[in-house]
Specification:
Length: 286
């Protein structure tokens, strides 16, 4: 009996899971899908049946990620995308939104993505001061290009830390700088959050541009510029050759209300509201 490789795309709330990658005894997104496909729908007996495009830490929200499942070809032929969406959609919790599904080549891998785009909302960080736009553009541009990012990642033994950042630019919303958007084929563990903290440190005067350049250009010398919180990071999109992008309008994001002593909690709610609106648009509800 032949197998069909089914690629599917989804988003999820990061604060509801201990990351995307399966871990023992804690809820994860990969674990949720594995439970659905193996235990509830009984579509597979494989030990690790759901590879994903990008792994994310606990607290990191995801507007769009992707994975695949190998199922019997005759099952897919009988149900198609509509049946797949109904079957899985009835099982997944409200913390995950399923967008689409399609059959792909048998050797297709979500890890071989063309681009991954992250957005970090820096205005939610304690002490953030909105910089001048040209200064911020220049600061973001320091993180573009091919570099050894050893000072901007969680170090892992025997793993290359050289990556290409295609673009890093201000994230502007409602006429103000709210953070930055960064695009690359692939990122290393904690790379975006460490870049975020470096940008924050320079923007608020805690570190100099020269220090950032030194950390970037001297990976053999350990220079720790800190790790930003996961709460304000969103995996915005992942793109693959031959799969159309999930289009949506830019969300309108209210300015943080600093009159409240719990303004960061309000920002955390806004992060989820951004995702909910995006999920609704992507799923065609608007």
């Amino acid at each position: 009996m032949g197998k069909a490789r089914i690629a599917f795309r989804f988003g999820h709330f990061g604060d509801c899971y201990h990351g995307s990658q399966v871990q023992p005894d804690v809820p994860t997104v990969q674990g949720e899908f594995m439970h659905i496909f193996k235990k509830k729908l009984k579509w597979t007996n494989e030990r690790m049946p759901v590879p994903m495009a990008s792994r994310t830490d606990s607290g990191v929200h995801v507007r769009q990620n992707g994975g695949f499942i190998d199922i019997d070809q005759n099952r897919w032929d009988a149900m198609g995308e509509v049946g797949f969406m109904k079957a899985v959609g009835h099982q997944i919790p409200d913390t995950i939104s399923l967008f689409d599904a399609r059959q792909v080549d048998e050797d297709w891998s979500p890890r071989r993505a063309l681009h991954r785009t992250y957005r970090y909302r820096m205005e939610c960080m304690e002490g953030w001061i909105e910089p001048e736009i040209e200064d911020f553009k220049h600061l973001c541009s320091l993180f573009e290009g091919e570099h050894d990012w050893d000072n901007f990642c969680r170090r892992e033994t025997n793993r290359s830390t050289t990556r290409v950042v295609e673009t890093c630019r201000p994230w502007i919303n409602s006429g103000r700088i709210i953070g930055f958007e960064i695009v690359g084929e692939a990122f290393i563990w904690n790379q975006v959050r460490r870049i975020a903290n470096a940008i924050f440190a320079v923007s608020t005067g805690y570190e100099s541009v020269d220090k950032v350049i030194e950390a970037r250009d001297n990976p053999q010398t350990e220079i720790d510029l800190g790790l930003a919180e996961p709460d304000w990071l969103i995996l915005w999109s992942v793109s693959w050759e031959g799969i159309p992008a999930l289009e949506s309008t830019e969300p309108v994001i209210p300015k943080p209300d600093h009159s409240s002593s719990r303004w960061q909690e309000l920002c955390r709610q806004q992060q989820k509201e951004i995702l909910i609106r995006q999920f609704d648009i992507i799923q065609g509800r608007y």
